[in-house]
Design brief:
alpha+beta; 3 domains; five-stranded antiparallel sheet; 75% helix; rod-shaped
Length: 513
């Protein structure tokens, strides 16, 4: 009995020892597999699991864990490797994954999608950056950039390099050596420029500089990064030498126009003054004409008195000597009156010649004004019309003065006839004292002579009235010339103001270049 019990105890002890060994072997196998897996060998697996009996389940679990881990690592590696190569369509296959493995797979897929989006956005940004860089490089505008701290040139586009190459002899270094150079080499007072260019609030700013014979217009702008941090100044510039030269030429032309308009204004003022003098002289001529008319009427009255005297002579032959003496006195007085008429007619002729000279001067002034208006171009068209009207009025004045001159000549001829007739009367009356026997015949001759005198005097009166009418026309023409000259003066003032305005605008344009 005892032996049997001892045998049974030994068997149980042996079995327990076997189980312990099996457990130890199982843990050793599991530990070895886990160690190999920890070393990166995810293909390590437990084999001949059946020999571990009921403890083989642990090894199955370890193998399953390694299968899941290996699958996770391989799948994530394939997905991330594809994403790294830009093949974002390769997703992490979540099938068969559970728990944290599935959540890890989902996280990797989300990261892959984020990487895809970021990569695509980065590619778009890179393409846009390349496009902008290419655009700046190929722009037909001179562009260069400098670092905000050191103010060393960091970039010049192709146009800037080409333009500076043409100005190389006027630069402190060659065009190819400019990148990396500090902007101080371009300035006599670099500290002032540094203070301006290091502060982005001073920009944008525009300045003109001279490089050799060329004038450059520089526009300086501040370049900021995405966070608004100042990177450095960018300078866009162009050669504006021709524009500046043209503007200076235009300025000179405007100055000439302003000077010409001032001269024209002076000419217009002279025309106004001349027109006023013409009007005054016309009034003087009109007054003289009225005086001539009065003198002619006096002569007419004298001839009537002479006729009465002749009748008295025929009735009183006994008093013929006395009447003859009175007649001589009357003829002398008539001769003086007629001589006054001749002198007045001569003065009228001189005044008419003066008016004709003034009309010629007015015509010459109008011609000069027309030439100046043509030089003024579009701005002088209105003035040219006024000048043409002045010229037309001057021609009318010349024509009217010619008519007056013709009438004055007629008056002078008639006056000469009267003078001759009166002289004949004097001779006749002188003979009355010597030939009283033939007084009747002399009286008849004297009557005929008196009728001739009356007719000539009437013609002279008509002529003086016509002179008065023509002088009135001359006065009206002089008034019109004055009005036209005033218009010319107004136009000259307007042209002068426009020239000053244009000169101001040109100066502002020059300052903006």
């Amino acid at each position: 009995m005892t032996d049997t019990m001892e045998a049974g105890g030994a068997t149980e002890a042996t079995a327990a020892m076997n189980d312990t060994d099996l457990i130890m072997q199982t843990f050793a196998a599991a530990s070895d597999i886990c160690r190999r897996a920890a070393d990166g060998d995810l293909e390590a697996r437990a084999t001949r699991i059946d020999q571990y009996g009921e403890y083989g389940e642990l090894l199955h679990s370890v193998n399953h864990l390694l299968d899941m881990t290996d699958a996770f690592v391989r799948e994530s590696g394939a997905s991330l490797e594809a994403a790294n190569a830009g093949r974002f369509h390769r997703a992490f296959l979540e099938r068969g994954m559970r728990g944290d493995f599935r959540r890890g797979a989902q996280t990797i897929n989300q990261a892959r999608q984020s990487m895809q989006k970021a990569t695509e956005e980065s590619a778009v940004a890179a393409a846009e950056s390349a496009r902008l860089q290419r655009m700046i490089e190929d722009m037909p505008i001179n562009v260069m950039m400098a670092d905000g701290e050191s103010l060393e040139l960091t970039y010049l586009n192709k146009e800037a390099r080409s333009t500076l190459a043409m100005l190389e002899e006027h630069l402190p270094v060659s065009a190819n050596e400019l990148v990396g150079q500090c902007i101080d080499i371009f300035h006599k007072n670099p500290q002032h420029q540094r203070e301006i260019l290091k502060n982005p609030s001073n920009m944008p700013l525009t300045v003109n500089i001279e490089v050799g014979p060329e004038v450059l217009k520089l526009t300086v702008s501040a370049v900021l990064d995405a966070n608004g941090t100042y990177i450095g100044p960018m300078v866009a510039w162009s050669v504006v030498t021709s524009q500046v030269n043209i503007a200076n030429d235009v300025k000179d032309v405007v100055s000439l126009v302003a000077s010409a308009s001032t001269e024209l204004k002076g000419d217009a003022e002279s025309m106004v003054s001349s027109a006023a003098e013409n009007a005054e002289q016309s009034l003087a001529v009109s007054a003289a004409s009225e005086q001539v008319t009065s003198n002619v009427q006096t002569v007419a009255a004298a001839t009537e008195e002479l006729s009465s005297s002749i009748l008295e002579i025929s009735r009183q032959v006994s008093d013929s000597n006395t009447i003859a003496q009175e007649a001589v006195a009357e003829t002398e007085r008539s001769n003086e009156v007629v001589q006054g008429l001749a002198d007045a007619a001569q003065k009228i002729g001189e005044v008419v010649n003066l008016i004709s000279d003034i009309a010629g001067q007015t015509n010459l002034l109008a011609l000069n004004a027309t030439i100046e208006a043509a030089h003024a171009g579009e701005a002088g068209k209105g003035f040219a019309v006024v000048a043409s009207e002045v010229k037309s009025l001057a021609n009318q004045t010349a024509s009217a003065t010619k008519d007056i001159s013709d009438q004055v000549s007629s008056i002078q001829d008639a006056t000469n006839d009267v003078v001759g007739a009166i002289r004949g009367i004097g001779v006749t009356i002188g003979n009355l004292s010597e030939i009283s026997a033939s007084i009747s015949s002399a009286v008849e001759e004297q009557g005929s002579a008196t009728e001739e005198i009356s007719r000539n005097v009437q013609e002279a009166a008509n002529g003086t009235q016509e002179v008065t009418g023509n002088i009135s026309k001359v006065s009206a023409t002089a008034s019109e010339s004055g009005q036209t000259a005033s218009k010319v003066l107004d136009a000259a003032n307007g042209l002068s103001q426009e020239a000053e305005k244009m000169q101001t605008q040109i100066e502002e344009f020059l300052e903006s270049l």
